[in-house]
Design goal:
523 residues; alpha/beta; single chain; seven-stranded mixed sheet
Length: 523
Amino acid sequence: MSALTLSSSSAATLRADAVVVGVAKGPDGPVVAPGGEPLDQAFGGSLAGVLETLGASGGEGEVTKLPAPDGVKADLVLAVGLGDAPEGDGPYDPEALRRAAGAAARALAGRKKAGFALPAGDEASLAAVCEGALLGAYSFTEYRGKEDKNAKGSKKGKDGKGGKGGDAGRNAPLAEVTVLGARSRDKAHKAAAERAEVLAAEVNRARDLVNTPSNGLFPKSFAAAVQSAAKEYGLTVEVLDEKALAKGGYGGILGVGQGSANPPRLVRLSYTHSKAKKTLALVGKGITYDSGGISLKPAGHNETMKCDMSGAAAVFAAVVAAARLGLRVNVTGWLALAENMPSGTATRPGDVLTMYSGKTVEVLNTDAEGRLVLADALTRACEEKPDAVVDVATLTGAMVLALGNRTFGVMANDDAFRTAIHDSAAEAGEPSWPMPLPGHLRKGMDSPIADIANMGERMGGGLVAGLFLKEFVAEGTTWAHLDIAGPAFNESGPFGYTPKGGTGCAVRTLVRLAERAAAGDVV
């Protein structure tokens, strides 16, 4: 991840490859945002006019590059749009700053150092700029060739990195982010920057896992990654392999994973604080590859199914983040890991599974597998009697149809808790929407031979899946379900601080929820 530093230096005097300035949409054209005054002065007070001549309007995410004038130590000035300017002297929206910093950082890939002269005078704004820049600079290069000797410009530079024009230089993220206008010795500013570093690092951890191809990440190797992080951060970890799952009666996880050569796992990752008064249990769907099983997905729907473990990645990263931030709340993560493959040993449509809870499930569609692994993990998580349980999953295409690719749905058995999660997501900068759990949809899952079927009515399928999960939540346990099928994997172009591919969706929401639980604001 990019290095982060705070500096009180002027945007004109900082020695860097580039300096970033914010530009907003004013009533009469683009205006330079606070923090960019030294650069405006270097342009003779005409920076906004120059940008307008170049076609800049201040629209959100708009990037304009221009050579730095005399008097500016950096070689390049990058102006990034912030959207509409706030009225009067009001602060800029943190999410607008986060997105702008992300867009700027991505545009500066391959450079060593950039100063960010965006409005960052208060803690919230500073945190947003730091977070956005670090998230926007993300790049997943693990599977790229280390060096293409036949590529033009691939010769290494003096620092051992790819030279200008080479693949290595182009793909390398911005090496150092320096946020200007901050006070590095101010405790509040320092704390805001440190939190942003942890959040970005853990979101990027989740992104890395989601982007890893399925032949590089399967239940056993995912569990090993959790064990490694647990050792590094002093967390407690327990891994149930296929023998332990069979002995424990985890019919849902075993049923989904039995068609694969890579056997399933259930991982328990726990962070505890000596002064904690609340305990959160987080449950993540971890289907490391989803072919649909015997109910095989049609052509064109398999290519991105490495992302079906995004919920488990988010839970894993959130627990580590809680530990790194030292939050006064106990957080336990449950990762239900399996690979859903068709074979002679795979679960067939019409089979009946006996779940960990003792309930029996008629499997009408083996591609509705996420709810099966989550059901076992939810039952197990409830046995520890946490104050609240939240499951996170790329669960249904129906939720994508309902809310699109950038918003996740929130369902719960408690209206106040659902609202708390929705609010936490908004504070974190992640779009979400409260969804209902209509009781009349439950009848569609009645089975003539088992306690329940894993499919119900087609219309409202995302809600049906939520109702299925609710069946496995212990009576009296506060529970919520996050269906992140839309925003977990970005198949279009990057935007703001969101890259193409794995996004790390829900990590920041879960961390914010944990912070609120630590403060006694929820559950």
